[in-house]
Amino acid sequence: MTITRISSGSPFEEQIGYSRAVVAGGFVHVAGTVGQGETVQEQCRAALATIQSALEKAGASLSDAVRVTYYLPDRAEFEPCWPILRETFGANPPAATMVECALIDPKYRIEIEVTTLAP
């Protein structure tokens, strides 16, 4: 089996020792991704943009998503993201889970992990 590792160039990838995405076994697995911004909506959009960029490097897109997991420190902040997520996934919604938990830094309000079909 061929494995392709994709980097976004984030310093965390080298510091922590992970890839932004890995193409293996017919899937593209994108690591949990946070985004910059003041609001949960800004962070959600930024995280999705980083994910989309990694998927493009793998030859995939968010329309190929089969699974998504959302991690939020405050579950009440998930609902404001729903319109963004509906817009992003449109007619191709993946299976999804939302987990309330602490993130690596308190400034982050959402982390998103995606699995898509590989091209």
TrEMBL record:
InterPro entries: RutC-like_sf, YjgF/YER057c/UK114. CDD domains: YjgF_YER057c_UK114_like_6 (cd06154). Its EC number is 3.5.99.10. Pfam families: Ribonuc_L-PSP. Keywords: Hydrolase. GO terms for molecular function: 2-iminobutanoate/2-iminopropanoate deaminase. Gene3D superfamilies: RutC-like. PANTHER family: BLR7761 PROTEIN (PTHR43857), YJGH FAMILY PROTEIN (PTHR43857:SF1). This is 2-iminobutanoate/2-iminopropanoate deaminase. It comes from Antarctobacter heliothermus. The lineage of its organism: Bacteria, Pseudomonadati, Pseudomonadota, Alphaproteobacteria, Rhodobacterales.
